[in-house]
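worker-03 picked up job from queue 'complexes'. Input manifest follows; two sequence lines, order preserved.
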Amino acid sequence: MRSVSIAGTGTTAFGELDAGVKELGIKAVSRALRSCDVRRDDVDALYLGNFVAGALEGQEAIAPLVADSVGLTGIPATKTEGACASSGIAFREAYQSIRTGVHDVVVATGVESMTNAGTAEFTRALGSAADQGTEGETGLTFPGFYGLLLDRYMHEYGATREQVAAVSVKNRRNGVSNPRARFRSEVTVEDVVESRRVADPLRLYDCCPAADGGAAVVLAASGIAEELTDAPIQVLGSGHTTGRSAAYRYDDLTTLEATTTAAESAYSQAGIGPEDVDVVELHDCFSAAEIGDSEDLGFFEKGEGAKAVAEGRTAVDGELPINPSGGLLAKGHPVGATGIGQIYEICKQLRRDHENQVEGAEIGLAHNLGGSGAVSTVTVLGGPSDV
Amino acid sequence: MRSVSIAGTGTTAFGELDAGVKELGIKAVSRALRSCDVRRDDVDALYLGNFVAGALEGQEAIAPLVADSVGLTGIPATKTEGACASSGIAFREAYQSIRTGVHDVVVATGVESMTNAGTAEFTRALGSAADQGTEGETGLTFPGFYGLLLDRYMHEYGATREQVAAVSVKNRRNGVSNPRARFRSEVTVEDVVESRRVADPLRLYDCCPAADGGAAVVLAASGIAEELTDAPIQVLGSGHTTGRSAAYRYDDLTTLEATTTAAESAYSQAGIGPEDVDVVELHDCFSAAEIGDSEDLGFFEKGEGAKAVAEGRTAVDGELPINPSGGLLAKGHPVGATGIGQIYEICKQLRRDHENQVEGAEIGLAHNLGGSGAVSTVTVLGGPSDV
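worker-03 finished. Artifact:
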């Protein structure tokens, strides 16, 4: 198996862009290609993550469409879908194809266009990540799933509503200085706990906003990557696992096994433990999710995650900065673009070029999660040696 | 790179099944697992092809859902989408993951549920394979695309309407004895050319029917496959390429480059040429498509395909039997299931167990095509040595 690096990165801002997935894909991929010294002819394959363009835009077969549109005709171009983890999976497949020697240079991208959809079609499309025959029939939504999870977590570990709200406060603060973020204003703990009820105990400001967006990276075998850029980012480990597909399938709602097993696999490949990670972008689709994720990824003991956030330990200047980009809660969640959007932010950190730079960051982790904990990808990245 | 074999196969019939993708996936995968001596614990990953369950059923994240439902929780489970080639791609990804040593045993499956949809939503969902910003805006449908292609072909090569109709006559005849086929009655050349006009010069019986269906295979590294079955089918070659994404992007509408390049790649890997193939399942979404495909795959000279069919050279007892299963035209086209459905039929041929058995078949080819020639997979399979 070969080692693999990220040579180029490109993204759109996340927000209300009035653009479809084709346009978002063309922009993100073109920017990633231009960001390094790669020629179109060098690219061997393209993987594209997308979740709901079929339902919302009537646009499928997006991978060949984007490939053909940016001058990459004649290579395999494949869409991967795994709900909110769609582009974490696209990245993973691209990575494996180089690691195993099938390809040398591969583009991985993620796209989603959501903000033009009406509320009803939007809700139905997002809900398609749940098992329609079980959770769908009960009417349980994703805010509902994470509301259940938070209820259980607070009951089990005595976390307070205010501690949980600290996640949104931190991430919204981080979003202020990130020009790629949809929300760039702060909120207080009071704002969060007094905001409109969505799925008790979750309130409006506990929930991430939808967004349009595209993000892309150019991956290359180490050796080749160094010819394409002065600052290659090494992929040190990658994990991808499927967990339980619905709430009723869990023994313990406060642990999402897809994340714990994907993390184990990524750490083991990288030869590191959670204590070695310097900066994290994780899947905070809800404030409650960030707390659970931070424990599932091994950063805090079970039941300690809420306290850690409230004490500022995960702030940009804390012992383990989590979501310095603003995360899904502030940057926004263009579902199919989120996974590679997180990797984009980590690359910027490891190249010491981030608006909320974490000092001395050498190892970063990106965590993408889809469905009711149904699927997760974890990627461990290492900075260029000469930074 | 290791060699890879198919150890197990499973399928539903293709037709009006009143079942959703979850149920179809569970059936197909369970049957494939039961067809060989594999244990659930041996399976390292699952790839699932699907096209329109998001739009028609509101069901995405199907790969983890099916994996978790059949007792395969905790492994990577990934959905691939490439319009009508969705499960050809799932097969390809599964194959590559074993060939490269990432996994030892992988399930590849394809599912689609279509017949419960209303005409308007059905048409919109199928049309999502086209570039909405160009072809979609013009109102060109897939029957329209293939109508244009046939018009050009007849103009260019002097093929007659009756020669083209012979494709439907042959495939409907083959479908009569295939219990997995949706249509099991014959049609005549007159029936075809006098049937209702759909997209001139294409008539109703030139068009494949929608269907519900699921198909699955268990792939394993050669060496392991022999422990799971007495009759492993070897994957000799696999190609996957992206072509032009819309009609206006073609220099020559009678050649779909996605097919020609995927075929070159599969033949070259297998170390064979088209003349070595004994039996073929190719993507006859329309009668016209079979003729073009048979030339793009190198079986006939440009312009000779229509004549060859009319002369019976592609019948079950002809020199190169094409679509002895009945093809998409008779068996039906549950879009995301079609690619692995074709591979299922070829395995049955190479195991000398097919209802329309091609005598002495040792090498078979399956060809899956998506969009306006946007993406193609070609798989070359070899029979068990002891048959």
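worker-03 released lock.
The two ends of chain B are 26 Å apart (CA to CA).
Chain B has a mean pLDDT of 96.
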